[in-house]
## 1
Amino acid sequence: MDITALANGLYGIPLLGILFQIVGFLIEVIPSNAPNIMNQATPLALAALCGVLCERSGVVNIGIEGTMLAAAFTAWVVGVAVNPMFGSPAPGPIFGLTLPLVICLVAAVLVAVLISTLHAWLSISLRADQIISGTIINIAAFGVTGYLDQLISKSSPAGAGSFAAFTPPTELTDLPVIGWLIAMFFNQGPIAMSTIVIIVGAQLWLFRSRWGLRTRAVGEHPRAAETVGIDVIRLRYRNVMLGGFFAGLGGAWLSIEATNSFQIGMTTGRGFIALAAMIMGRWTPIGAFGSALLFALFLQISQLIKIAPPAGDLGTIMSSVPAQLWDALPYILTIVILAGVVGRSIPPAADGQPYEREAAA
Amino acid sequence: MTAQPARNPRRGRRSAASRIWSVTAVPITVVVLAVLLGAAIVLVSELLVPGKKFDWGLPLVAYGALVEGSLGNPDAIISTMVNSTPLVFGGLAVGFGFKAGLFNIGAQGQFLVGALGAVIVGVWLADAPAIVAIPLAALAGFIGGGIWGFVPGFLKAVSGAHEVVSTIMMNYIAVQLLAALVSGPLKVPKSPSPVTFDVGNAAYPILLGRNGHLGIVLALLAAGFVWWLLYRTTWGFEVRSVGANPDASRYAGMRPKLITMATMTFSGALAGLAGTSVLLGVTHTMTSSFGTTVGFDSIAVALLARSHPLATVLAAVLFGAMRAGAGLMQIRAQIPVELVDVLQAVILLFLVASPVLRRVLHAVTPAGVPDAEAPMPDLKPGALA
Amino acid sequence: MTDPAEPIIAPALEMRGITKRYPGVVANDAIDLEVRPGEIHALLGENGAGKTTLMNVLYGLATPDEGEVLLDGKAVRITGPADAIARGISMVHQHFMLVPVLTVAENILLGEETMANRFFLDRKEAHRRIVDLGRRFGFEIDPEAKVGSLSVGWQQRVEILKALYRNARILVLDEPTAVLTPQETDEIFAVLRRLAGEGHSIVFISHKLYEVLEIADRITVIRRGRVVGERKPADTDEDDLAELMVGREVQLVVDRGVSHPAAPVLNVQGLTASDDRGHQMVNGVDFEVRAGEIFGIAGVAGNGQDELVEAIIGLRKPTAGRVTIDGKDVTGHSPRQLNEAQVAYVPADRHRFGLILSFSIADNLVLTSYYRAPYAHGLLRDREAIDKDAATSVERFDIRTPSPNARASTLSGGNQQKAVVAREFDRELKLLILDQPTRGLDVGSIEFIHRQVIAKRDAGTAVLLVSAELDEVLELSDRIGVMYGGRIVAVVDGPTADKNDVGLLMATGGERDPGTRNPALEQTA
């Protein structure tokens, strides 16, 4: 670390200049990295959506991280087992689709739903503390995937590969002004691309449908919901399980879309960052998606700076900061946003409170 | 848990055995169940690894090695104690947070920053007399962990940022900070890999056998101190009040925000001492991959001990023994040491599902034991949300 | 029982021999109840007499151990709220079952959604039906208003609309007037009469005698889970009903005696304060409370009383103004500083603010004084002193418990409140602040606490009593300040105050404009 360079750099240039350089850097970087940003936002958005579904119905799910990790492991390990059975087929023309890959995806989602059901059982039926239940799920997922990975990886097996990104025609992506947006949303693998549809659907679901209305009521005032005949327990189960479905998609993204292998702890806190995105997005699917994009932008920039820092004073300053601190940037940002936004963001009133039927009293 | 069992005249009449059973039934059953399930996991694992002959006796071999490696001889026992030491500190840290209604998942980060503080001061005072170097290095670890706990506590008090998310973020930041420092300013020049100098005279002296260091004693003292603090002092009363009902505490003239900050800071400092005990007691230097599973283990310890400072020691010894014996288990039975993580997770799962267990155990639980009906007395649902 | 002069029709609702036992108590003991079509039938009883349990049985929230429920003469088994609703039974709960952040329409639709297709709601159709229903019963309602921004009177209307939207034939109202001003009560009564006129049957649960006499066609009185009598309003009076309800001749009002006010103790000048979201709720309040008098503050909930009390007691920073005690400025002092200045405070919600339920009674008794002698020496607590003191308090304040070391959660509501009172009253006081000190308690505990309050007053303590229960304020206060829109709009003499005058002040703030509606509602308009 070259502290003198940093000090000189700061001393020698006016702040306004740096500000201009930052804006310029962003304008240069965002369009060309848009597909990557969208891609990085995918697991965050899906996990945040899982959080929205759970918390809107009154269940805090801090176990999203573990759920995703287990799903990621499942997607990979099922590939290891299944791929040879189908004779390791070559990637298909669309999204590199193969039958084993689809099986991997289904298995990952199933496991995630199962784990969510466990969380639902512990926190809704047994009325355990929801944060403890979620934490235990995280610890268990970390332990079990780590153990199994150690057990299996001795023979260094290969999974079923990964989904490929769809390549939109260059005529479209080269269009001025909007071309990069097309690339952003369509130069994607199947999970990332469907995320956009899922988010929009979820927004309509929450605010326009019967299930959505009931969800919001149950998360705010479960007793009121029960007095009009709504089965609070069942609704919460359904929401937490559906949330698990999306967390499963996010987990599968890690090991069969973004990469083609599993590493221990590969979620690296995404499940938690997603919770911050959910809060920042005020518990709405679209808001959470927007926040996820912002986080992904910073994630992308923190990587970019290490590889190709911008020219000029800005670059000098940036590259004088140790690389590890850029890696810490998304986490620092999460804390800052959490501290800055959370006071003004009001969670569902019954969030985290187990429900006990009146009749049981 | 403010009602002192001995003071209640109705409870006094019951036999000591039934009282002990009422408190220990669930933890013991949970551990037994976990051991059985662990055996099943070992058997299933055999199927997963191709090319090996299936051996029904493998769980016994594995568990035998686990016990031998942790209790089989004086060295093993000392190794268990050394492994338990950071868990006592970590368990106390997490449990102390629980008492105030705070979930400090950040023990891992506080552990790392505590160790970082200890290594910085330890290296600096490596040649100073031990009587000066040790207390100052340990103090630095205490303060380092305290700072890492203070930040989430401060943010929670000032802006309401939930400590669960912020402490986890602090964990990741700690990892990067440690890597940046160990491969940067703290690195031994010209060393091929990132590693710091040795702490020299600041190292905890060995009191027992080959590696039974001073930290073991400090951990026991810490457990006693935390118990005294919680149950015998006004500050402990405030901490428990805020944990049980922050609104009523505020109305009664306490300052929950201040207590939140103080509790998180002290909790972080205890976790910092866990890191200190590993650094000054075991490794004496720091590499960029310094770090263990102490963070997660501490949560397990605190939950199993139901946040009680003295029970924390017992829970820590249990998990410490598993860590100590895991190496021998891997050698003898070719079972990855990560099996301990699985066992731990299983114990926790059973523990949180203990209401079901209680219903099953009801037949063997002496009738009319009120304590047995309150699984985690200070973690009432929703208190942390 | 049936009056021979009346035509015999099958009752809309009949409950026969309903018995419901909970561990240790028989909540309902062979209760019979019969409600005819178009009848307003009052169910009168004290808190804890078993009214709510009986209605939970009717609503399918509790399963009776014995007895049966008949609708239109046919025996039915009601399995839950959904089933009850399907059979035309709707309930308006004492604590409204409304979701504040949802709109009026969403609240009404919930559980009985009008759908455009399989998936999406039909908002337009729903809005139309809601507006029509409101008009039929004489009021205009905005289906898009957020329920949380409505006044309680309007929230009650939403609750009633909810029932009507479900085509309820039998409407159960549990203590519907507890939070209403007399004027709002009259308006709701008009709506209820209109409903009954259209053939709806109404069960009206209350413990207020004069209300029951005013609205009901018949009155069933229950005590300790049993029916102790049935009356018609024409054949009875308040004293008769009171005796039935309580089981002995009761003094309806504790004799407050004559007060001997001395020098002012609490002086509040130009106090303003905002709520957590920054809305100014207290707008320049002035008043004083003298030693040896009870100053009551009456007002509809949400007119700034909470913020006023919190600003005085140090839980909220005032944005302007001055609070003095015995001439000393205590503005912005912390709760503890005020506590040490001999100010005691009994908060409204004993579960949330008054007690730590998981702690022992002894620890709760020192919750405000744990840190000072004799309960602590420096950092060290003195268990012996705490236990000794607890034993004395339990005895003196008649807290019924096997041991002072039992958890506070094991106490009944009345005994819990006695514990709070014991903690706050049991020392020399200059100023005593009471916020709804008897909410939800049985008559015996209310009487006990009222006597304690008067005894404190007579010992020369200045007492500030805040309550949304106008009856309690009228019963105890020597002077009454009426709070409206964050101001004290009038101060009247307590013993001679007229209930309707005070009620009108509470509802309108004293502006003689009949068109003025509740300020809470106007915020949304």
## 2
Amino acid sequence: MRKSLTLLLLVVFVCTSSAVGATDTLQDWATDTENTWRTGSGAHDGSTTAIATSIIGWGVGLALVIAIVAAVLHQSTSGSGHSHCHDD
Amino acid sequence: MMINCIALYGICFFVPPQEWEVASPETLSPRVHIAFVGKSSSGLAPTINLATEPVSISLPAYVEAVRKIHTADPNAKWRDLGRFDTKLGPGQLTEIEMSTEQGKARLMQLMVVKGGLAYILTACALKEEFPKHYKLFDRVLQSLQETDDLVESYPAHKRAELKSALGALTGEKQWAKFEQKIIHDFTEIGPYWQILMLSEARAKLLTEGTK
């Protein structure tokens, strides 16, 4: 009886450890895949924006861009007390 | 539009061609900070933009990841043009050709990896018109630089005036005057520097106002 109980506990322990290990491995794999998939997205964004802005073919005045930046800064400052950047 | 964060990354900027307009911020992809558009009589206007991406890999590994993305696109032709040194550090220059409804586009993409960030400067024009813009694009790519202090990055002969203007900016009342001064009197290194300078000054003003 005691032997059976020990064996059962051992089996449960081994199964639990492998399940935890598998979850960790799966998470690592997911992170690696995510990183691999995402790497290069800055260059990809650069080329898609280049084509899009080339097709549109016009821009806006500097004053308007500054007004937009000022509005964004104002919102972030009044909302949180400090501004966050690189909102990617 | 993303705003450079001085505390985390330093400030990276480039000097765009004179007279080019700033592309509307709504047209930019998520990782693109700013884009400039030139005039063209054809269907595709010349453009240049700056994007960044947080990375934990080297420049060759990043270029390889980008190569895989572009070579997987049957509509694009990618080639490595070799090393290209910038004020920011050593970079890699690549070329992409893509078909669009307006004709074949040629893109020149400069990539630099520094301090956990990939900086990507992309120039684009109609393939047939590209040789006409080559010198201009080369000058813009060469101008890519990083600074911890926007004031110090401005040509020395105007730095004292700039410091004085910043010193006089003590509240909301002086903002309009300061803004006009930056737009009209500090044009030597282009509108991207002006936008960054105004963003930084505005953020400082608002932060001090909330204290």
